[in-house]
Amino acid sequence: MRYRPFGISGKAVSALSLLLRDHGRAQPPGAWRVLTVSAMECGVNAFEVEAGIETLAAGFRQAAESVERRLLFIAWRICGDGRSPTDARAIEDAVRNGLTQTGAGYFDLLTLDEPAYATLTAEGARMLEDVRSAGLALQIGISGAGALVDQAVASGAFDALSSPFNLTSGWNIRRRIRDAAQLNMSITGFDAFPPELCRPPAQAPAKAFLFRRSGPNAASVGAYGFLHETRNWEADELCLAYALTEPALACIQIEAHRPEVIERLAGVPDRELPTGLAAQIEMARIDTPPEARQA
């Protein structure tokens, strides 16, 4: 694992961070503890925990108790529904409950997702400042992919940005990251794995000729077929390796629910992109119609 400074905060974070959030299947604290410990054993020290899930927070606390707090980067994410106001009371309750449930003492980062920011009240904005001033959260961040996130970046009210970034990202996303970097924001990338590119491509017909090359049909994934043909690399590993080359990003956030997946991806930061692959990716981006790229 490699480590980078988290923006101007200077705290060293692993090149990969792990997002822990509800994925539709109830998990006991022990399952979250095992997942977190597995990431720690792979060198991951940056975690973002979704607020409002007590079993998740309890499992994370069990894992973190054996590690010195100063060695961990702990972020707490407040998620909105786009309807309920993100007011002072909601923020205060989320922060205090989070600190109690995780035993973190303080959060390195308090993040609002885009729906929570959409309903942020003036009193809520002042509470964010109070939380930061009190040292309960060292930085305040915004996470999302829409136009509201661009407004949040431009407002100058946030210290950190979490934005999608991958090899298909278009100029809007790249401009957002550039603007945030110019404002000295700490930047995390997520969604590094475009599902349509990481999904195994269609296989050749069952009937094969003697000298036909076996393996996936590169044409089925268009210009990015080489992702499935690069020796000793999986497609998602190449996508991650590419995202890690963006110098403005402090880390790439992944979401994985199996320890073996975390272990495999945790080895990517120590590897270099195969020779010539960066050029192939850029040519594929040029060959891809604009409407097929991420905004």
- State the end-to-end distance: 30 Å
Strand content: 15-25%
Radius of gyration over C-alpha positions, nearest whole angstrom? 20 Å
Contiguous helical run count: 11
What fraction, in percent, of the residue positions are helical? Answer: 25-40%
Largest sheet: 8 strands, parallel, barrel
Q: How many strands in all? A: 10
Low-confidence segments, given as residue ranges, are 204-220
Average pLDDT rating = 90
- SSE series: EEEHEHEHEHHEHEHEHHEHH
Q: Looking at the chains present, what oligomeric state does this protein adopt?
A: single chain
Structure classification = alpha/beta
Strand order of the largest sheet: 3-4-5-6-7-8-9-10
Dominant shape? globular
Structure description:
This protein is of the alpha/beta class and 295 residues long. It contains eleven helices and ten strands. It has helices at 29-41, 54-64, 88-102, 114-118, 122-133, 147-155, 171-182, 195-198, 235-243, 259-266, 277-287; strands at residues 3-5, 12-14, 16-20, 46-50, 73-78, 109-113, 140-143, 160-164, 186-190, 251-254. Strands 3-4-5-6-7-8-9-10 form an eight-stranded parallel β-barrel, surrounded by six helices. It has a two-stranded antiparallel ribbon with strand order 1-2. Helix 1 packs across helix 2 (54-64), helix 1 runs parallel beside helix 10 (259-266) and helix 3 (88-102) packs parallel to helix 5 (122-133). The radius of gyration is 20 Å and the shape is globular. The model is unreliable at 204-220 (pLDDT under 50).
